[in-house]
Amino acid sequence: MRLFLALNPPPELRLRLDELADIAHAHCGGRRVPTANLHLTLAFLGEVEEAKSRVLADWLRGLTITPGEWRLDAWGHFPRPGIVWVGGQQPDPMLTALHQQLWESLEARGVTGRSGHFVPHVTLVRQATQPDSQTLPPPPASRWTYDRIALMQSLTDHRGACYRTLAQSTPASNA
């Protein structure tokens, strides 16, 4: 099964991200990410055996993270895959530290595949042209308050990818 760890936006922010995806798609073309799939990937795990996924789900359910807040105020583009995204103008030290801590814990559990560079972002459009900074309006700043991580499974069929939550960490207020 294809897995990743993610932050899922609260409903009101998901609606705002949906609006930004519409704007990015109108300016850059490509394939718009469905509203239900909007998220921030903290760690892409790739293909994981089902038995290992159950171990990871149990680990995550027992995990509590430090709550944080992320400021989304900039567009970005990854040219090679043609991804238009929204994220922060400044690197976010809390998300970077969370990413690092998660990978250290994952690697201690035998999971490999850490990518070399972490750029916190929400993918809005795939297979898109590079945004023109002259025509793409600056995204209004949004704040994302988070307190839990989800273990997500990516399922693909003829309609594309959809994501299913397998487990979530414990919110700090419930610890």
UniProtKB/TrEMBL annotation:
Hydrolyzes RNA 2',3'-cyclic phosphodiester to an RNA 2'-phosphomonoester. PANTHER family: RNA 2',3'-CYCLIC PHOSPHODIESTERASE (PTHR35561). Keywords: Hydrolase, Ligase. The keyword Hydrolase applies. It comes from Billgrantia gudaonensis. It catalyses: a 3'-end 2',3'-cyclophospho-ribonucleotide-RNA + H2O = a 3'-end 2'-phospho-ribonucleotide-RNA + H(+). Belongs to the 2H phosphoesterase superfamily. ThpR family. GO terms for molecular function: 2',3'-cyclic-nucleotide 3'-phosphodiesterase activity; ligase activity; RNA 2',3'-cyclic 3'-phosphodiesterase activity. It comes from the Bacteria. Its EC number is 3.1.4.58. This is RNA 2',3'-cyclic phosphodiesterase. A motif (HXTX 2) lies at residues 121-124. The active site is at H39, H121. The keyword Hydrolase applies. A motif (HXTX 1) lies at residues 39-42. It holds the Pfam family 2_5_RNA_ligase2.
